[in-house]
């Protein structure tokens, strides 16, 4: 806590003095630049990492908002699409999923990128590629899971806060004037009616049908394997390969080699990434696009903080901590 106060003091002192030498934030003003991680041949394999919860909005840093995961990923896809030397893309996915809309946007952007470029797409799953993290992997020509990856969770969940019990305890009530009987459905201030529960079940079912239909379209699973997948359970890498959710098991180097092979490229085809700043000793496991001098965190609530920030909505998300 003492260090957090010190960082805040430095920030305020810098602002008051007009000093420009102290930068506590990431710099997003620079355009994305290409950096080569390995290889010397002209054709390129681009590595893009999608890490964290998928949301359409910006990331909320301590003192300001930053570009969100959808915006940053699409920016990289656009840059890769504009380069005719790019013959393949490795998408490293480390995500438990997120909102249904964010997942669907990235799925659509990856499909459009493949159609526009005619390049190959290989997904490399890292720690977790579940629910929406699996959803965005579906356009891949080959899905590679790390030996310790957790994937699957093909399902939909409706998350909403509920404070009606707390309000009863502290003697607080909310008056609502509404134009229709269902106008406040999903309100955290009262228990849902049976009809509302049925309507929410219908919405979840409709969104989940889309998810399952896309899995069936891209993965061609047997009826028995599809039944297992539709329970929304998670799988290890070996289990996922047995039911047909992934194609291969290997690390990120294996995924890059697979992308080169899929695109018919030489073994020394360049592996490139897009960054706003240069990193010494850069490697494929670096998911940062922009360097920061320091990022102050005044209060870190961990998983509880993530839960408090979670907006009411429909998610393709695996969140066992909650």
From TrEMBL:
Annotated ranges, domain Peptidase S49: 116-265
Pfam families per the UniProt record, alphabetical: Peptidase_S49
Gene Ontology BP annotations: proteolysis
GO molecular function: serine-type peptidase activity
Signal peptide residues on this chain, from the entry's feature table: 1-20
Keywords on record: Hydrolase, Protease, Serine protease, Signal
CDD domains: S49_Sppa_N_C (cd07023)
Keyword Phosphoprotein assigned: no
PROSITE patterns: PROKAR_LIPOPROTEIN
PANTHER family for this protein: PEPTIDASE S49 (PTHR42987), PROTEASE SOHB-RELATED (PTHR42987:SF4)
NCBIfam families: SppA_dom
Family membership noted in the UniProt record: Belongs to the peptidase S49 family.
Protein name: Signal peptide peptidase SppA, 36K type
């Amino acid at each position: 806590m003492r260090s957090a106060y010190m960082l805040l003091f430095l920030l305020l002192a810098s602002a008051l003095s007009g000093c420009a030498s102290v930068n506590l934030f990431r710099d997003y003003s620079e355009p994305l630049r290409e950096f080569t991680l390995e290889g010397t041949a002209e054709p390129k394999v681009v590595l893009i990492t999608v890490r964290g919860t998928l949301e359409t909005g910006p990331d909320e840093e301590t003192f300001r908002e930053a570009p969100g995961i959808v915006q940053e990923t699409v920016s990289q896809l656009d840059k890769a699409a504009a380069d005719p030397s790019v013959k393949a893309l490795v998408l490293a996915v480390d995500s438990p999923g997120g909102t249904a809309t964010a997942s669907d946007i990235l799925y659509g952007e990856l499909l459009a990128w493949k159609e526009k470029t005619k390049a190959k797409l290989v997904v490399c799953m890292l720690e977790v590629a579940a629910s929406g993290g699996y959803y965005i992997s579906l356009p891949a020509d080959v899905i590679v899971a790390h030996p310790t990856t957790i994937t699957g969770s093909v399902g939909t969940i409706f998350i909403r806060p509920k404070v009606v019990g707390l309000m009863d305890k502290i003697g607080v009530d909310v008056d609502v004037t509404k134009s229709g009987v269902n106008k406040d459905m999903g309100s955290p201030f009262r228990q849902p009616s049976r009809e509302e529960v049925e309507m929410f079940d219908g919405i979840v079912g409709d969104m989940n049908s889309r998810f399952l239909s896309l899995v069936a379209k891209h993965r061609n699973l047997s009826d028995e394997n599809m039944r297992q997948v539709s329970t929304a359970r998670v799988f290890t890498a070996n289990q996922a390969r047995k039911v047909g959710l992934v194609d291969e098991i290997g690390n990120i180097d294996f995924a890059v080699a697979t992308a080169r092979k899929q695109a018919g490229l030489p073994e020394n085809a360049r592996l490139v990434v897009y960054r706003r700043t240069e990193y010494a000793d850069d490697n494929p496991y670096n998911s940062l696009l922009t360097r920061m001098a320091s990022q102050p965190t005044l209060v870190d609530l961990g998983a509880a903080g993530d839960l408090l920030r979670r907006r009411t909505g429909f998610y393709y998300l695996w969140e066992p901590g909650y």
